Structures are given as C-alpha cells and as structure tokens.
Give the backbone structure.
Amino acid sequence: MKREETFFTKPVNLYYMLLGSTLALSLLGLIMVFSASSIYSLGSRGTTYGIVLRQFIFLLISLPMAWVLSRLSLRQWKVIARFGVSVSVFLLLIVQVIGKSVNGNHNWISLGFVDIQPSELAKFLMILWAGYMLAKRERSGAIQSNVVALIGPAFLLCMILVMAGRDLGTASVFAFILAGLLWVSGLRLGVFGIGLAAGFAALAVLILTSPYRVQRFAVFLNPFAEDQYKLYGWQPAHSLLGLASGGLFGVGLGASRQKWGNLAEAHTDFIFAVIGEELGLFGTLATLLLLALLLFSIFKLALRASDPMVRYVSAGFGCWIAIQTILNIGSAISVLPVVGVTLPLVSYGGSALIATYMGIGFVLGAARRDPVIYKGLQETGIKWLR
C-alpha cells in the first residue's frame, strides 16, 4: 500500500524548507542584532547602526557565496575537502601567532576594519574533510577499519589549538561535531560510549583546572545566589530576567531593558534572551520552530543522499548547527553554563555567518543533485532555483 505523501515527505519541499528557514532566520537575526546591539553600538561606535550594518554586509557577502557554492559539482567539493585539515590547522596556528584576545579568548585576527574568527571556517573545513575521508573508507569496503583513528587525531589537534586560545566553547563544538560524525559512521555503541566518557572526563579536567570555568559551571543552576549574582551569575541571571519579563508577546521590538548595560553580549551570546524579552514566548517558539525546520531539512537531505560524502558532510553540518543551538539557548535559559557560542544565523558574527552559509551552500547543492528534487525545481519554472 502506497503511503500518502505529505508536505514534510515530499522531497522538493525539503529544499524549500532549508532555503526558507535559512532566509527567515537570517532576517530575524538582522532585526534582532539591530535591536540588541543599538545601545552598545552607540556607546562604542557613536551610532546605533554600527554593528547591524556590518552584519548586513556579511549577509550580502554570504548570500551570493552560498548560491555559487550550491552550484559546485561534487568533484569540485572533493578537491577542496582534501585540503580541509591543512588549511584548518594553518588558520588556527596563525591565530596563535598574530591573533588577539576578546573577552579572554585568544581566537581572533584583526584586519583593522573587522575582526575575524578562523575557527568558524575551520569547523566547516574539518566537516568537509572528515566526510571525504569517511566516504573514501566506505567506498573501499574497509567498514571495519578504525574510524576513530581515521579522523580523531586531526580533530584533536584542532581542539588543542583552539584550547591554546582558552576557548572551551569552540573546542566543545569541535568535540561534538566529531562525536556526531563518529555516530553516523556506524561506530560500535560500546566504543562510542567509551569515547564519550573520555571526552566528558577531559572536559571535567579542563573545567576543574580553571577557577574561572569552575565558577561559571557552579553558578549556572542558581545565578541569583547572593555571593555570585554580581559576579559570574550576572549574565545568566539577567538573561533569565529578560526572558521572564517578555510574557506571551513581549515588551515590544526595541523595548528590551536588559540590553541597557545589564546583559553583556546581548547581540551575540545572549540574543535569545532579547528575543524572549521583546517578542515574548511567541518569538522564542517561532525561533525554535525555524531552527527545527532547518535541522529537519538538513538531516532528511542527508538521509536521501546517494553519495556517502554528501551524507556524512550534511550530517556533520547538521550536528554543528544542533550543538551550537543547544549550547547557546542552554546558556540563555541557564540550564547549561555560559560557554560563549553564537546562535546560528541569528547572533551577530561575520565569520560565523559566512561559515554557516558555506554549509548551507553545500547542502543546497546536494539537494539540487537529487534527481527527484531537481525535477520538482524544474517544474516551478524559476531559473535561479535550479
């Protein structure tokens, strides 16, 4: 008996969901970055438009770039993928030599007019390289080979270089991307469990050996504690205050009170709190729905892929978006310690936006190479979709 086709099971709609959720989140991000950054931008740059204009320029760069990347053939992607590790390690080493520190993390390079974060590009390149290596292993028939030894050391090297800049949040994202890739590669559950336990043990050591991280970890469950509220509890406490004061429909766009100096990094790490305060429960649920549609379309397209590299890279990119979403929103609602990662496509950050759109370009290209989806796109008669 043939199953009835629904909106979510029709292949071409996965393309529209990916494209639509990406553009909607980008537009939401642009609006909320303007609102969340206006006070900070006025004080640091003399104009309320300083930060949002940069985000707009980065978006203007990202959109055509993603369109071009979606037109690359799989053969061209494989050529790029071969150099993923070497370019990533080079970028992370350069940061250690000429980088600058921002909020205690030495992971930025100043170009004068803008600061860039090479680790964002390294995330995408490492996923691309790992997907290429895992696909090569699958095609050779060496399914029982040690997949941890295949891609683990390169990821570990990147994590060490990131940790050299004291950026535990970004290192954690690399670790979870690796875990996601190992899981979809079919790693045995027992080995995966041992690796996961080792990873959490290493994380515990990194936390316990840094008084600053210990305080952040200890305070997140009760940021209003009397001895911590004005110290490490300040950010999560005011994030919760913002979310709590939003109600059902918020206090109104631009009317956030927490962004007036109370909530540091309101346009980056804590933009979800500003969304909750200004747009209320409706705004936060809409944001979560868009992120869910984005992840659903990415993983469904990964499952449809006939080429193993496309499957691995798309799944790895989905894991990246998923873990950053969890870490960012978890910090904002104080169920996780503050780790300082952005909300994909929504938070301010040019490097993060460009790297995310590179991943979107890859997955859109994978969808276009799907014969069923491409046929559906042809039927629309819209040339730029094809």
